[in-house]
Amino acid sequence: MNIVRAGFYSSIATAARLLAALVVIKLVAWLAGPAGVGKLGQFMSLMSLLAVLAGGGISAGIVKYVAEYRDDPQRLARLLAAALWYALCASILMGCVALLFSRQLALWLLDDVAYAGLIRLLAVAQLGIALVNYILAVINGFMDVRRLALIQVLGSMLGTVVAVWLARWLHLYGALLALVLGQLLWLVVGLPAWWRSPYFRRSMLRLRFDREMTLRLAAFSVMTLTSALVSPLVNIAVRDHLAQQLGWEQVGYWQAVSKVSDAYLLFLTTAINIYYLPKLASISEHGALVHELRQAYRHLLPAVVVLAAAVYLLRGWVTRLLFSADFAPANALYGPQLLGDVVKIAAFVLSYVMLAKAMTRLFVLSECAFAVSYLALVYLFTARFGLVGAMYAFAVNYLGYLAFNVLVVRRYLERVQ
User: Fold this and answer.
1) How far apart are CA 168 and CA 367, in angstroms?
2) pLDDT the model gives residue 4
3) Rounded to an integer, what distance in angstroms lies between the CA atom of residue 16 and that of residue 152?
4) Closest to 79 measured CA to CA, from 131, 147, 144, 138
């Protein structure tokens, strides 16, 4: 399996996930306008945060160590038993916290306590979401890209049907409810697909505390949780700042362009995640690592430049298609956002070296530092340039992140040479 073939299968899965997400965004834009899209972004940030916390943030660790231990049945069994124990304990803890603070979360994120029931449902769903994350991570660790794509396609199709039905019935509330139920529908597809895989063993469903394996997973938990916590929290802070300074309608324009950016980049980031994390984790030789990084830039940078250029040229049509004519002011925001996307992918590839080689302290410090710098740049640039300043902040921050990762990878390569 190479990056091109992995990219092909992941693109099919990504297209299905993207279609499901865009259906929800289109429904919300139609039913609730720019303000509704802004609130959708807040709820999706909460979902992404809880989804990672539900599994203890160890998906990357599972992928790495399954890739390393798949030819060592004893160590693999120990790892997966510890991983499932870790994930279920974390999901119960986070579910209880979300239940306890459901009213406060609804008021803080959505300005309406009527959504507290929805957050309670999301809290209860954490057990199922944790199991989905575990299954997908195991399949990814075995680099079974075709099976992974099948689960994502079928799960996304079911989620789309549920989203259309609930949005027509319950409007904005129904669209948000469909996001929660859609995550659980992946379990309906994922479990049978995993059971039928040639590498499935019943021992993979055992729970057991294993100190050594738990400590190994904990390092990845710290890195993943830092990334998962920081990004949604910073985006929430950015939305709150923009809403206070410019109003929720302006937040909707910013959210619309950000979602378009996330949508087309998903094709590339998914391929990187599926292929490069297990691949880089299993490589220790200097030459092989340099080769993989060069291959990544050879295939991914031209792809992101072409996609970004296409989105820029078609931005008016894309905005009308995905949202509505009311979102026309968002067209002025695409330029700096798309430039930032190109720099982001360049940095993203190199940042996976830190993740794959378990550079825990450096990864955590960099995530926190660049999150703070992004928020500071948003405050600075929006005060001077208005809403488009948030896009300038995005591009400038990722330029700094790219420079940082170049230095990190150079020093690592010097050590392993």
Assistant:
1) 40
2) 66
3) 7
4) 138
pLDDT tens for 236-268 read: 889 888 888 888 888 888 988 988 898 888 878
Weakly modelled stretches of the chain, pLDDT under 50: none
DSSP line for 377-399: HHHHHHHHHTTHHHHHHHHHHHH
Closest residue by Cα to residue 276 from 305, 302, 297: 297
DSSP assignment of 174-233 equals: HHHHHHHHHHHHHHHHHHHHHHTSTT--GGGG-----HHHHHHHHHHHHHHHHHHHHHHH
The count of structural domains within the chain is: 1
Measure the CA dihedral 356/360/364/367, to 10°. -20
Q: Specify the pLDDT at position 54.
A: 67
Nearest to 347 by CA among 401, 390, 299: 401
197 class by beta-carbon count within 10 Å (0-12 exposed, 13-18 middle, 19+ buried)? middle
Distance CA 402, CA 350 (A): 8
**CB of 244 within 8 A of CB of 280?**
no
Domain that holds residue 313: 3-416
